[in-house]
C-alpha cells in the first residue's frame, strides 16, 4: 500500500530573507587641484581623524609656462597639453561623488596676458572652474600642508615652497605657543598671515613672507643662454639670493637652536630620492625625511658631475624633472647658504594638501589632534 503523502507537501516554501547589512556610511570626499607653471596635480581624499586618506590622484607635467618668460603668453601647445590633462581630472571628479572641491591656478596664469582667456576656455571645454589665487594664498596653503612635519621643539620655522614659476618663503615665530599646540597653531594660518593679531589663545606669528617670481622653470629660462653647466648653476643660485634682499629674516641674525626649514617641492623630494638611491620613487620614505646640508651638497655635486646628458639618464631624477633639477637645487643651495641650519625637513606635500586641510577644517570633519 502506497504511503499517504503528508498534507501540504507540495506547497512552495515561504522564503525568509535575512536583511542585507547596510553598507557603512562613507565619509565625504574632497578634491584639490593645483595647476602650476610646470605640473597639473590633483588629489581626492576622505577625512580620517585629524588627517585624510587619498582615494584617487593625478599628476602630469604639462609645462603650461613653457616659453612664457620670452613671449608673455601661454603657447597653443602648452594650452593643448593642459586641457587634455584637465579632461582626465574632470572624469575622475565625475566618477567620485565629492562633497567639495577647490581647483586653483598659480603663477603661469597670473603672469600670462592670455591667462584669463585660457581659464575661460578651460571652463567651456571641461566644465572646470579654476580659481586664480594670489601669492599670499599660495604661501598660506603651503604652510598649512607642512604643519604635520613641524617639530614641537621648533621655535622659528621657515617654510619654502619651490614652484615652477615662483618660490614662496614664510618665516613663522612659534615661541608664544605651547609646544603641544604648535602644529595646530600653524594649521590655523590658512585663514590669514596678519602678524601680531592674537585670538583667544597664543598664535603662530608670521614675521615675514615673500613670493619670489623665480621658480624652477622661470629661473632656468633666465639663464638659458649660459652654455657652461657649472657656471649656469652658480649664476642661478646667486641671482636667486639677490631676490631675497627684502625678506626681513634675510637681514637678521638667527639662532641655530630651535630653527627648522621645511621644504616642499618636486626639487626637494627629488634630492631626497637621489640621496636615498631610489630608482623608483617611494613617498613613504621621502615625506618627513630630514637631510643634512652636507647630504644635500653631496647630491648637488653628483648632479653637476653627471652633466646634462647624465642627468637625463639618471633614474633617480626622472625624465619629467631632469631639465629643471639644476635650477631647483640652485634655489635650495641659496637658501641653505643664507640660514643657520644643517638640516632640511623634506615635505612631499604642497598646495593640494593645504587645500584639502582647509576645506575639511571649514566643514568641521577633521578631528583635533587631541581627539583623533
Could you describe the 3D structure shown?
The chain has 372 residues and is of the alpha/beta class. The chain is built from 14 helices and eleven strands. It has helices spanning 68-71, 76-95, 107-111, 115-126, 135-146, 182-187, 216-222, 229-242, 248-251, 266-276, 283-286, 293-313, 325-338, 351-363; strands at 29-35, 39-48, 51-61, 98-105, 131-132, 156-162, 167-173, 205-212, 259-264, 290-292, 343-347. A six-stranded mixed sheet has the order 8-7-6-9-11-10. A five-stranded mixed sheet has the order 3-2-1-4-5, sandwiched between helices. A hairpin with a 2-residue loop joins strand 2 (39-48) and strand 3 (51-61). Helix 5 (135-146) crosses helix 14, helix 10 crosses helix 12 (293-313) and helix 12 packs antiparallel against helix 13 (325-338). The termini are far apart.
Features of the shown structure:
372 residues; alpha/beta; 6-stranded mixed sheet; 11 strands; globular
Short description:
Helices cover 40% and strands 20% of the residues. The protein contains 14 helices and 11 strands.
Helix and strand composition category: alpha/beta
Q: Whole-number average pLDDT?
A: 88
- Tell me the major beta sheet: 6 strands, mixed
Taking all Cα atoms into account, the compactness measure Rg is 25 Å
Amount of beta strand: 15-25%
CA-CA gap between termini: 77 Å
What's the helix-strand series? EEEHHEHHEHEEHEHHHEHHEHHEH
Shape: globular
Number of strands: 11
The stretches of 5 or more residues where confidence is low (pLDDT under 50) are none
Number of helices: 14
| Share in helix | 25-40%
**How do the strands of the widest beta sheet line up side by side?**
8-7-6-9-11-10
